[in-house]
Amino acid sequence: MPWDRNQMAERAAQELEDGMYVNLGIGIPTLVANYVGDKDITLQSENGMLGMGPFPYEGEEDPDLINAGKQTITELRRTSYFDSATSFGMIRGGKIAAAILGAMEVSEKGDLANWMIPGKLVKGMGGAMDLVAGVGRVVVVMDHTNKHGVSKILKECTLPLTGKAVVDRIITNLGVLDVTHKGLHIVELAPGVSREEMIAATEATIV
User: Fold this and answer.
1) Per the domain annotation, does 41 fall within a domain?
2) What CATH code is carried by the domain that includes residue 152?
3) Does residue 207 form part of some domain?
4) Collapsing DSSP states into helix, strand and coil, what is residue 37?
């Protein structure tokens, strides 16, 4: 069985190590906060928060406490708040160890497209371009194919790029892929998913 959204987020949380400062993108990556567990991870949100907790239980939401995707979240005893300029200073200054981001497309070279679809209304690019340029490691979490069954992991991205050769690891509902200079390398398969199924669902070169 391929992984569902929560299982993908749980697998992504395994990428994090004690002491890391980590930014979570919009979509599936926000669920990673629920699976950090006992690890000493500090989650950063580009709207000006360091030390995000998991999502609140129903009825305990604080409408003033939101992440960059405008979802209600919780704070921790060590949470700190600051303006957006300070937040982006952390990102651009290389202080954030890793970013876990969603994507519309990823190429076999690690190019990332995750901020717009031409012709559709876009609120803005958010912090994605700064994140992929400033953090130490970029992990993408997304469905392997779109709702029509077409691969989202391509030889070349067709959508406007967020960054070129910026993705280190891709986690999808089918498994885990690393970006190498020769092509994509299968690290792990979701339970019940075969190597052949992974290859068939991937337009990009798997080595």
Assistant:
1) yes
2) 3.40.1080.10
3) no
4) coil
What is the pLDDT, as a whole number, of residue 141? Answer: 98
Catalytic residue among 15, 17, 46, 75: 46
* Average confidence (pLDDT) per 10 residues, the chain, 207 residues: 96 97 92 91 93 90 88 92 94 96 96 85 75 96 96 97 97 98 96 97 96
Domain assignment present for residue 144? The answer is yes
Whole-number Å distance between alpha carbons of 98 and 24: 9
Phi/psi of residue 49, nearest 5 degrees: -140, 135
- Which pLDDT value is given to residue 125? 67
With CA atoms as reference, report the closest residue to 101 among 90, 91, 113, 89: 113
CB count in 10 Å sphere of residue 86: 12
Place of tokens 């912090």: 127
Contacts of 155 by beta carbon, 8 Å cutoff, 6+ apart: 107, 108, 203, 204, 205
Residue 186's CB: how many other CB atoms inside 10 A?
Answer: 16
Domain that holds residue 112: 5-200
CB of 187 closer than 8 Å to CB of 171: no
Check if 46 is active-site: yes
Q: Report d(CA 23, CA 205) in Å as an integer.
A: 29
Q: What is the pLDDT of residue 24?
A: 92
Q: Is residue 13 part of a domain?
A: yes
Number of domains in the chain: 1
Q: pTM here?
A: 0.93
